[in-house]
Write a structure and sequence with these properties.
This protein is α+β, with helices and mostly antiparallel strands. The radius of gyration is 15 Å and the shape is globular. The mean pLDDT is 86. The chain starts with a strand and ends in a 6-residue tail after the last helix. Helices cover 29% and strands 15% of the residues.
Length: 109
């Protein structure tokens, strides 16, 4: 059986590549030769011209949020707008919770 493929993202090119996961993270973009970020197997890239979605995605990936499948389906809640990201970051700063955990909370207390 072939290994499942997972997504790698190049933020400067706004490109996503599905490649087999071999445990290494030393992948480079074929367009710009920058390192690719492992996004996970449940990742669905936004359209290349959707700059707001790519900015939101850049914040999530740089905070350590990934899009892996869970036992019950998809990756769970992920913010889709910069406003939702700002709320999560403000909550994290206010409470001291790590950014990655605060950004995946569906509802902030």
């Amino acid at each position: 059986m072939a290994h499942a493929k997972t997504s790698y993202v190049c933020l400067p090119c706004r490109a996503s590549y599905k490649q087999p996961y071999r445990g290494d993270h030393d992948r480079i973009c074929p367009r710009c030769a920058e390192p690719l970020i492992h996004a996970g197997s449940a990742f669905a890239p936004p359209r290349r011209r959707d700059t707001a979605a790519w900015r939101t995605l850049a914040v999530l990936l740089n905070a350590g949020v990934r899009f892996h499948k869970s036992c019950c389906g998809g990756p769970g809640y992920r913010p889709r707008t910069l406003g939702e990201v700002r709320e999560g970051i403000a909550y994290a700063r206010r409470t001291g919770e790590p950014f990655a955990r605060a950004l995946v909370r569906q509802e902030l207390p």
